Structure formats: C-alpha cells, structure tokens
Amino acid sequence: MRLPASPIKMLKRSSDFFDRNAQWLFPLPAVLAIVVLILGPVLANFAISLHGWFIGRPPTYIGLQNFSDAFTDRRFWNGVLNTFYFTMVAVPTQLLLGLAVAVLFNREFPGKGFVRTIILLPMVATPVAIALIWALMFNPSLGVLNYFLESVGLPRSLWVADASLAIPALVMVDVWQWTPMVALILLAALQGIPGEFYEAARIDGATGWQAFRFITLPTIRSAIIVALILRSIDALKTFDIIYVITSGGPGIASETLNVFAFKAGFEFFRAGYAAALLIFLMFLVLGIAILLNLLRTGRR
Amino acid sequence: MRRVVSGFVLVAVVVATGLATAQEFDWQRFQGDDVRFLMNRHPFTDFLEPLVPEFEELTGIDVTLEIFPEDQFRQRRLLEVSSGAATLDGYMVMPGQVGAQYLGADWIRHVDDFVEDPSLTSPELDLEDFFDGALSTFQSNDGLFGLPLQIESSLLFYREDLFEEAGLEGPPETLEELRQYAEALHSDQVAGFAMRGRGAAATSQIVNLLYSFGGQWQNDDGSSALASEESQQSLSYYADLLRNYGPPGPANLHWNEVMSLYAQGQAAMVFDANVFRSIVEDPEQATDVVRENTRYAPLPEGPGGSLPAVLVWGLSVNQASDSPEAAWYFIQWALSKENQRQALLSGVPAARESSWQDEEFQATAPESWIQASRESFNRGQPDWNPPVVPVAEVRDAYGQAIVAALQGQDIERALDRAAQEIDRIVSRTQ
C-alpha cells in the first residue's frame, strides 16, 4: 500500500505558494473589502456628482454644474455653517468634560467601578434610540426637561423648537453621548504616566495645578489630539441624532451639510447634487483630519 | 399507472364540481407562492397584520408584511422599487404623494389585465363600491394601478366640555369663528388650537386653508401660485392662529405632537387627519375626559368655501414583482368588502361605500365623526400635494415659508421666495 504521490505533491506545492506569497495573501480579503465597500462607492459618488440625476429619470452629464450650484445655494452655506457651529461647540465641550472625568477616575474612590460603568453607558447605546428618547424629553409641552425646569422654578424652554436653541440642544445630546469615549481615551493615557513624575514634582514643591499643567497635560497631549481627531471627524458628519430629533429644523436652523445631502438625495431625489454635497463634506472632514494630525506629529 | 391517472381525474372532478357549486373563483390557484409587501406603520397595517394568516389559509400563499415608520418606509420602498427587486411584490402607496414619480418611472404595475380576467379577479371585488374620489386617484391615463384602502380628510377635533365652559355653542362654522373660539379657549394650560407646523409636514394640512381662502397650488401656466393674495391670506391667518392661540414651539409640531397634545388634554381644538380618531379613543393614549368629550366637525368655511383635501392610501403591485398575480390576490382580499368593513369598524376610514353604510359601523362610530368625514369626502379636493414630480422638495420649499411665518417673519417675502424656489425646483425635472 502506497499513497499516491501526486496529491501530496500538489498540497506541498500549494503550501509553498502560500508561504511565498503570505505577505499579500493575508491582507487580500481586507484589501478586497476596502475596494468593494469603500473605494467603489467613493468613485461611484464622484461619477454621480457630475450628473444631473433626478432618481427615476435617466441621468444626464452636466460636468461641474452641481458644484457651482452649491456655491450659490443659500442652503449649502447654511449647512456648512451649522456643521462648523455644531462641531466647534460639541468637541471642545466633550474634551473638557472628558478630561475632567478621566482625571476623576484616575484616582481611587469607593464604588469607582460601578460609577465608571454607569458613565460609559451612553456611549454603547444605539444613537437612534437615544435620539428618539431625547426628542420626547425636548417636547416643549409634554417633555420631561421642561418639567424639571419648572420644578426648580425656571421658565420653560422651547428646546429644539426654537431656531436659536436647536443646535445647542443637539450639542447637549452629542456631549452626553460621546464624552465617555473621550474620557476613556484620556484615562488610558493618564494611567500610563509613571507615579514618579508626580512624586518628583511634589518634592520640588509643585502645586496640584502645576503638576497637572506641566506633567499631566504635556504627557497626554497626543492622546488629547487623538480624541480631538476622532471626535471632530464624527461630529462633522453627525447624522442620526440631528435627523431624528429635528430633521434639520425648525426650518433649516439645525440642518448640517450631511443632513442636507441626505435630504437632497433621499427625499428630494437629486442624486447628483447630493453626491456633490457629500464630496464637499468628504474634503472638509479630510482636510480637518489632516490638519489635526499635523498638529499631533508636527511639534514633538 | 392507470389507477393513478384515474385517481387524479377523480380528484379533479370532485374539486371542480365542489368549486362550481360553491364559487367559480379559485383562491388556491397560486398556492405555494410567496408575496412580500412593504407597509407603512399605519392604523390600516395594524388592523391587517393579525388577519394575514386567514389569507394564507385561504390561498396557500405565504405573505410577509415588512412594516416601517413612514419616513423609513418611504426610503425603503424607493430603494427597492428603483433597484427593480423582483422579490418585492407590492406596497402601500399614496398616489397624491409619489404617483407622478412612480408612474413616470414605471415602478407600478397597471392591473387592468387582471381586472378583466375573471380567473384572476374575484367577482366579489366590486370596483363600483369604492368611493369615486378614492378610486379615481388610482386611475392614470393608462388605466387602474392599484386599489384604495382608505380615504382620509382632515377634521376639526374639539372638546365639547371646554366649549360649554367657555359658553361656546356647536363647532365653529367659519374660519373667523374658529379664530374667535381659539381665542376664547386659550389659556396657559390649554392651547386654544393646534395644527402641524413642522415645515414640509405641515403643508398637507395648511393646503386645506389654502383652498378655503380660494388659493391653488399652481397657476394655469403651471407656475407656483403660492405667492398669490389668497395664499398670503391663508398663511397669515394660520400663523396668527398658531402664534397667538397655539402650543409653545408650533414650528416643531408634526402630527404625533399635535395628537399627543390633544390626547393629553393640552389643546382644546386640533385640526388633523380624521384617521387619528383611533388615538383619541385609545385609553392608553388619551385621557378619559378627552375620550368622552371629543366631537368632530368638518373644516370651517373660509372666503372660498370649505374645501378640504382628501388623501388616499392604497395598495399597488410592484412592476418588477415575480408573482404579480399572487400580489393581486392579496390586494383583493385585503380590500374585500368584509375586510374594509372590519377596517372601518376599527377606525380606519375605509374607501368603500358599503362599509360606511354598514349599520354596525354607524352604531360604533361617533355620529359627528361619520357626518363630518362624509361631508369632507364629498367636498374633497384631490391634490393634497402639489401636482408635480419633485413633490417632497416643493413641499419643503413651502414648508420653509410656513416656518418663517410661524417665526414672525414677513409672510409676503417668505411666500415670494418659496414660489420662486418652487418654479426653479419644478423646472429642473422638466
């Protein structure tokens, strides 16, 4: 009884093949996934943006018309402004609060594990579910927030029904939800600071603030910037909470670029224009991410 | 072999005679087929869903109802029909909303060939029985493209107890009276009047005022007529009413906010779809005092009359469906006389005359609701939406003017801007 030689040989040959080419065979599935799921749609988006396309009608090629239309569209600029407004209020607030929470959790106190779990909860809940609950709480007549305000003797607020309060109220939701993530990133960095640094500082007579200012902050600087980058990218393209709570309203008072693009595409069926708007948004996010990343790597 | 064949013949003969004596129509013809319908989360869907097993037993057709809240439902439906999904066999549709778009893109199957074929359409269907106004919304130049499941119109919901307290008698009959009533009923705790104000969502309600002030969607040349004198009057009447006698933050009111306010006793009068009687009568959603004291009245008369718009929902067969006949079976069954009667008994304003004439129904529904609804159907205007292809974007542009008016901005300027914007939007799809 002898085993036939050829299958074994074939197995061996193919295993050689895998050994030799492992460096590109292993990443192949990931590369394929990126090409199919990311690169493909992005390229398709560029192609669509060059067309006038009302969904349901055949698309016609119109060159850069969609882009020049956007520049004269009041609503486009409203969206850009609101996008920045939302991000520039939400992200710094989250960073400050997140830092405070991280510093707090870097110390020992009874019940710490329990409190930490509670604080992380908003982050793990589904954004749409959160948004629906907040929408109920914001209701000026039936919502629980106005009930709280009244029970401590404050006047009722219109919350998201007031054009000037809509974005601040949405920022509140975003801060509530994402501060825990910032805290988590910063806490990890804080725990990496050797205790000796603080001991040395104490011996040199540094105050608590000085230790924070000259030891803590510089050491976790790059973690802060990482949190800043991640949160800025997310905040610039926030969609779910805005769409569910206000749909960009009242009127267009809280309509960000992303929400406007969604409406243009899926409600108004202007696929070409929506694609162009999203290209603006993509470069906006990309530009800011690159800028912040320079901040991280530039001065070291 | 011969025995088997003769056995089949025997069975066939027995079945055939059985059918001939009972009913000519073969409900089992598409036994084993699957149909999938996309449905809006809507009182009709809530009514129909538990009955589906009856249909499955009657026909042997397996039915899946995919149900989503309205916004997601519409996006999902658009995605599926535009991708030509053959597994989607039918859907709920409102021709006044997407008719122009869906027919233009050939996403809806016309059903005249089914209706004419007695082996596909049950003799019990009786198309004549549907309200003319309801059926005609499902008729294009190419024929019938679905069946209406309900006809809706907006009504005034009002609290008789609060009226009595304020010394008011009967429902307001003119829009001017409505304003006076709202003023008399308004207080810090209870809004005198509430109605949708959330931009595009409010247009389907404010159109009732537009018509009743003598306004129209379009001029004869097809351009937007929203900058007209009548349109300005209707919008300023509306803004005055909501700003002075409405709940806080009217620009945020969608139908569910309006109805919750009313159901919780925080508004004395509201104007919205008559189908929301089901909310007002639901002990889980409405307080006892609201349930017991609610009365209904048709839209009060304006300078141009009382001209409410009617909304018609229905079921259509998807053009790309791989089993359109089975889908048509489902539609016939879902909208049969008996099911429409039951739907009406559960509070869905069915689209069949016979349902409304049913004695059991007349005994269960509030008289004022029946009366007000039928009056509205008789006076109904078909275009509750602008009759254009880009409906949503035009509604949004009008919605911007509505929000501006509610924020106290200049109404004439807001409407001028909306009309120009609408003409630009419409010209893009021509």
SSE layout:
The complex is a heterodimer of chains A (300) and B (430).
Chain A: H1 5-25, H2 28-49, E1 51-52, E2 60-61, H3 65-71, H4 74-105, H5 112-124, H6 127-138, H7 144-151, H8 166-191, H9 195-203, H10 208-219, H11 221-236, H12 240-245, H13 257-267, H14 271-298
Antiparallel strand pairs in A: 1-2
Chain B: H1 2-22, E1 34-40, H2 43-48, H3 52-59, E2 62-68, H4 70-82, E3 90-93, H5 95-104, E4 108-109, H6 112-116, H7 132-136, E5 139-140, E6 143-144, E7 147-159, H8 160-165, H9 175-185, H10 203-212, H11 229-245, H12 255-263, E8 269-273, H13 277-280, H14 288-293, E9 294-297, E10 310-318, H15 324-334, H16 337-345, H17 353-357, H18 359-364, H19 367-379, H20 391-406, H21 411-428
Parallel strand pairs in B: 1-2, 1-3
Antiparallel strand pairs in B: 3-10, 4-10, 5-6, 7-8, 7-9, 7-10
Helix pairs in contact in B: 10-11, 20-21
Characterization of the model:
The complex is a heterodimer of chains A (300) and B (430). Chain A has 300 residues and is an all-alpha fold. Chain A has helices spanning 5-25, 28-49, 65-71, 74-105, 112-124, 127-138, 144-151, 166-191, 195-203, 208-219, 221-236, 240-245, 257-267, 271-298; strands at 51-52, 60-61. Chain A has a two-stranded antiparallel sheet with strand order 1-2. By secondary structure, chain B is α+β, with helices and mostly antiparallel strands. Chain B contains 21 helices and 10 strands. Chain B has helices at 2-22, 43-48, 52-59, 70-82, 95-104, 112-116, 132-136, 160-165, 175-185, 203-212, 229-245, 255-263, 277-280, 288-293, 324-334, 337-345, 353-357, 359-364, 367-379, 391-406, 411-428, and strands at 34-40, 62-68, 90-93, 108-109, 139-140, 143-144, 147-159, 269-273, 294-297, 310-318. In chain B, strands 1, 2, 3, 4, 7, 8, 9 and 10 form an 8-stranded mixed β-sheet that branches. In chain B, helix 10 (203-212) packs across helix 11 (229-245) and helix 20 packs antiparallel against helix 21 (411-428). The longest helix of chain B has 21 residues, at 2-22. The model of chain B is unreliable at 1-22 (pLDDT under 50). At the A-B interface, helix 13 of A face helix 4, helix 5, helix 12 and helix 20 of B.
